[in-house]
Amino acid sequence: MPDLRRFWRRCVLPLTLPVVLLLAAAAPGGPERPVVETDRGPVRGVSHGAYRTFDGIPYAAPPTGALRWRLPEPAPRWAGVRDAGAPGSRCVQLPPIGPGGPSGSEDCLYVNVTAPSGGGRGSRRPVMVWFHGGGFVNGAGDLYRPERLAVRGDAVVVTVNYRLGVFGLFGHPELGGAPDFTLADQQAALRWVRANAARFGGDPRNVTVFGESAGALSVCAHLTSPASAALFHRAIVQSGSCSTKVPPWSLLPTLGTYEPFVPERGTVADGVLAAARLGCEGSTGVLDCLRRLDARELATPELMQIFSRVSYGGALLPVEPRLALETGRFHQVPVMQGTTQDEMRIFLAQTLAEYPIADGAAYRARLERSFGASTARAVEARYPVSAYPTPAMAWATLLSDASFTCPTLRDSGALARHVPTYGYRFSDRAAPNFTGLPEVPGLPYGASHGFELPYLFEMAPLPAAQQELADRMTGYWTRFARTGVPGTAGAPEWPRHRPPAAPVLSLAPGPDGIRTVDARAEHHCALWDAQWPRVTSSR
Fold first, then answer.
1. For the sheet containing 125-131, what is the strand order?
2. DSSP secondary structure string for all residues of 389-454
3. Which stretches of 97-201 are assigned E, i.e. beta strand?
4. From residue 297, how far is each of 113, 182, 278, 303, 364 by CA, in Å?
5. d(Cα 205, Cα 199) in Å, to the nearest integer?
6. pLDDT in the model for residue 532
7. What is the per-residue burial (b if ≥16 Cβ within 10 Å, else e) of 50-68?
8. Phi, psi at residue 397, to the nearest 5°?
9. pLDDT for the residue numbered 15
10. Tens of pLDDT along 123-162?
11. Average pLDDT over residues 325-337
């Protein structure tokens, strides 16, 4: 367990570094404060000229006290006009990097709405609902400023807070299993959108769910959750497909295989052990005892990490998501999904000092440890260390292919047998490093995990060529939200995934930066498909 905690603090949490949000300065006399009537009462937002924001709107009752580890309940109505000029509290979480105790509040179930000013283009605008990343242990909706999507894409964008870690993904026999409160919160937010989108100029009959990393895994879960039926109409999955899987011992020598979806029975067993360690097992009413504990007693690195995976086998997620895709048991909506070209570089960089790959011999030793001797030879034939500037670059490349790119393409093939499916690869290796994490020698971040985010949200300044790419990506994303087909004026056509063909649109700056590639061939997916064949039954 110490190795898992160290990995989480050093590899995952750093990728969720908060982004400093620069709010629009008020004009002399103060900004315009528009008021919108929601189903729970009126809210007063802020006008920023071309767009309006309404932040910190509760979509469910605070899950505190007796409501801890219960499905979300409706937010109470409020009297008078509620101020929506600033985000609500973030959910309880640990610092993304460095020392410090938990921050945030259990009273955190809020949405933030960004909408263009003025009327739409002849009809209600598409609604895009964003689920943030952060490994299910960190992050918040207000870290993402979506005004580019709202203004250039003429869309209403809603960002969502949801319960994290032990507060959102705990399981115990007294709960009847592991109810996945994280997913239930997101579904409650989608019900809020259905009830209120039109009040902000959006079309409740045209809702796209989209997210990155843990947010993408959330979108995958909603595609396969019966309880999410009719709550959305399109889906965008960014770097977190249903089949995401990191090989064993690939980042730390004692860290086994990482899979984000786990059987419910394991989460329940972990909950029993956690309750005992907290002094509640054996008492009358284990949950009552646990609910009396202060949030700080629960928000430890160990518990937040243990309860950071989504459970299947329960009411919200009855079937393992990748199996649901393979067998066609998912909501039949258009899907757009993809990865970055160098997903795993930023993860690997956080462990190289402790677990270095000094030379070709160390590279081969790690191959054999992660894949076994016979498979290691096949992998090395496709990824010879001599073909890369450093052994670390070779290792990061094969991990990116094995963990993200090829599982995503495999899922796209399953989806495409039933629904329109579009694949992308974010390929700008000069993308800005907005994380604040320094690069390590011999392993530049390139187009690493999450590095497409500043092209969709206001998170980092972009040079002119990259700003042009950001504008085109914004057009692709919002056209997909509007019509179910990604496209934008003056940019190449986005080919549809039609098995057995698997064209992917590569996204990079420059005259020929946006082009169709054969990603399965470029990333040796036949090799990785043979290592992790399709599933036919849940574990």
1. 46-47, 51-58, 110-116, 156-160, 125-131, 202-212, 234-238, 335-340, 421-426, 503-507, 515-518
2. SSHHHHHHHHHHIIIIIHHHHHHHHHHHTTS-EEEEEE--TT----S-PPPBTTB--SS-TTTTGG
3. 110-116, 125-131, 156-160
4. 33, 20, 8, 10, 43
5. 13
6. 73
7. ebbbbbbbbbbbbbeeebb
8. -65, -50
9. 44
10. 599 999 999 999 999 999 999 999 999 999 999 999 999 9
11. 98
Structure tokens at 395: 């290792």
The length of the chain, given as a count of residues: 539
d(CA 513, CA 398) in angstroms, rounded, equals 23
The residue with tokens 């496709």 is: 382
Range list of H helices, 336-405: 345-349, 360-371, 373-382, 391-400
Contacts of 269 (CB under 8 A, 6+ apart): none
Determine phi and psi for 159, rounding to 5 degrees: -105, 145
Asked if residue 165 lies in contact with residue 137, where contact means CB atoms within 8 angstroms, the answer is yes
Torsion, Cα 523 339 20 113, to 10 degrees, reads 170
pTM for this entry: 0.94
Say which residue the tokens 């934008």 belong to.
488
Q: Which two tokens stand for residue 99?
A: 């020392």
Catalytic center residues: 213, 343, 449
